Structure formats: structure tokens, C-alpha cells
Amino acid sequence: MTGKSIGIDLGIKDLAICLDGKTYQNINKSHEVRRLEKVLKREQRKLSRMLKQNISGYRTVGDKRFPLYIRPLQECRNFQKQKKVIKLLHRRLANIRDNYLHQTTTEIVKTKPSRIVMETLNVKGMMKNKHLAKAIQKQKFYEFKRQIAYKCQKYGIELVEVPTFYPSSKTCSCCGCIKKDLKLSDRVYKCSQCGLVIDRDFNASLNLANYQSA
Ligand SMILES: [Zn+2]
Q: Which of 130, 117, 115, 127 is nearest to 168 (CA)?
């Protein structure tokens, strides 16, 4: 145990940022994941083309539309093959993401802090934002937190959850004043009181690390 307190700020740009300024990149921005997602899109288009070619018309029941297939889908061997290709791509992507989460959470825990501070996740609230929803889903915040929680338990690290209303992003980590007009798009935190200029997420992680529960 180092007696250190680590704050973890989960984000969209990077997956997480810790006290010592170490950031863990968003795996979905890595070269390999991007490449695989491109391949996946291409293969999915191929599948839908195959499907379209096998449709002769539509049958309407109530307000729903059902396609009429020229050949039953079970008999279309190339279509079934293509479905398998896509399934495997999905699995490969899922594996990369899972491995990365395990690597990251293990690495954080292995720095042997005495406590880890994280915000309570308001994933439901975040999911209401359409642009964020997809990114959050892919980053698996819940799973990240679950892993941190059980690994903390395993190594005897205290895990502190900070309520969502705690202004970890809006507070200056240097003088403690609160910047009320901080926007989500402000990537750099500039304090008007003490003049501190700091990366927004890093500032948040510092505040989390120094959090004192009332
Ligand atoms: Zn300040």
C-alpha cells in the first residue's frame, strides 16, 4: 500500500484518467478497433444486399410489413455464411474491449493505492443524450466499475463513491472555488480565481482523489 488516494474520472475522450495524470485511452479510438468496425460495416452492407436480392415483395398485416422471400433463408447458404462472418467480427470486437477493461482495471489496482474514488455513475441520465449513449455503451462504464469494485475488495483497497451532485469537474483543484458556467465542451479548466489552467478531466480526477466525505 502506498497510502495514495486515486481519483478515476470516466470519460468519453479517454476511458479514464488517474491521479498521476496517467490516462487510459478509449479503446474504441484505437487503430485495430476502428479497422474492425469498418470491416464490420462493410460486411453488414453485404448481408443486407444479399437479403434484398432474395425479397420478391412484401405482405402487409395490420401496420406491419413482412418480406416475401424467394428462397427460404435457411436454404441460402451464402447468406448464412455471411451471418457467421458478422457474428465472429462482433465477438472479436467484444473480446478486445473486454480484455482492455481487465488490463486497465488490473493496472490501476496494482499501483496499490489505499483508496480509489469514483463518481456514482448516472448512466441512465447520460444515455438520454443520443450522442453520448453510443459511446458510453461501447466503453462499458458499468463493467469497468464492477471490475474496479471486486478488484478493490480482493486487494483490500477502499472504494469511495462520490454522489453525482459533487461538482468534480466544476471545482478548481487548486483553490477550491467552483466555476458554475463550465460547459461540457470546455476541455480545459481555467480558474478565474487563482489562474490555474489544467486539463478538464485531470482536474476532475484530482478533485475526486482529494474528496473528503462529510
Ligand atoms: Zn482556482
A: 117
